[in-house]
Amino acid sequence: VCLEPSTIKSWPDPMGIKVNMMPFDPRKKESLPERCQAYWDIISLCIEHSHPHNIREVAYLTIEESWVKEGSTQRRGGLHTETPGVLVGHDIAPKPKFSYHHWGHGSYSHGTVKGGIYMASNVTNSTLFYDAEIKKEKMAKVPNGDCRFLRKYLGNPIFSRADMIYWMTDRTPHEALPTPSGPRQFIRVIFGGIDLWFSEHSTPNPLVKLPSSVRVLTGNKFNGEIMEVKRES
């Protein structure tokens, strides 16, 4: 459930990029804004490792280049899954026949991965993973992806190494860790499709539209009211 498919040889010079869940076409470098194209070599490593089906769908890119203060986390702390699971306090129900909101899916069988999430950073020990996966039918008990209460059942953690690309499913528990003061570059590529796109937390791409099947939500997904945006057909 947590794999190390490839190693990054070099990172682009940082430019202060911060994009989150930005849709792009994994077949076309030109589908990315010019500044983000500097990361295409790293994105290509993810594409090469992934199932060919993935590159026929819209993918989602996150890049964050920032200075991290001593003892702080650049990304979301607290053990969680990438899928929000269920949205507590809201009536945004999962699609029929599904028990949770998908956020990249992800499966691994006979050495082949489909969908899922790739992530990497240039700072060692800045992310913690568990080689585990929350069962689909249990995601209703993981509000907003928060699974800190499950830590004692998950075994030994995996601590990230700098420049290593990690693959996981959207139900793999992980968390950002506090780091020493200094710069950090982070990248995440999500294949396999998503059900929800939170406009307050995400970056639109004028070059690529969201698929019509994706539900767009406004508001803060953690502590505010969220509403579904009615999209034109």
- Indicate the percent of residues in helices: under 10%
Q: Radius of gyration in whole Å, from Cα?
A: 17 Å
**What is the H/E string?**
EEHEEEEEEEEEEEE
Distance from N terminus to C terminus (CA atoms, Å) equals 36 Å
Estimate the global geometry from the Cα principal axes: globular
Largest sheet: spatial strand order = 1-9-6-11-3-2
Query: What's the multimeric state?
Result: single chain
> What fraction of residues sit in β-strands?
25-35%
- Unreliably modeled segments: none
Number of helices: 1
Kindly name the structural category.
mainly beta
Chain-averaged pLDDT: 88
Number of strands: 14
The biggest beta sheet is recorded as: 6 strands, antiparallel
Annotate the secondary structure layout.
Elements: E1 2-7, E2 18-24, H1 40-49, E3 59-68, E4 107-109, E5 112-114, E6 116-121, E7 127-130, E8 157-159, E9 164-168, E10 174-176, E11 182-191, E12 196-198, E13 215-218, E14 227-228
Parallel strand pairs: 12-13
Antiparallel strand pairs: 1-9, 2-3, 3-11, 4-5, 6-9, 6-11, 7-8, 7-10, 13-14
Question: What would you note in describing this structure?
Answer:
The structure is a single chain. With 233 residues, the chain is mainly beta. The protein is 4% helix and 30% strand. The strands form four sheets. It has a six-stranded antiparallel sheet, with helices on one face. The N and C termini lie far apart (36 Å).
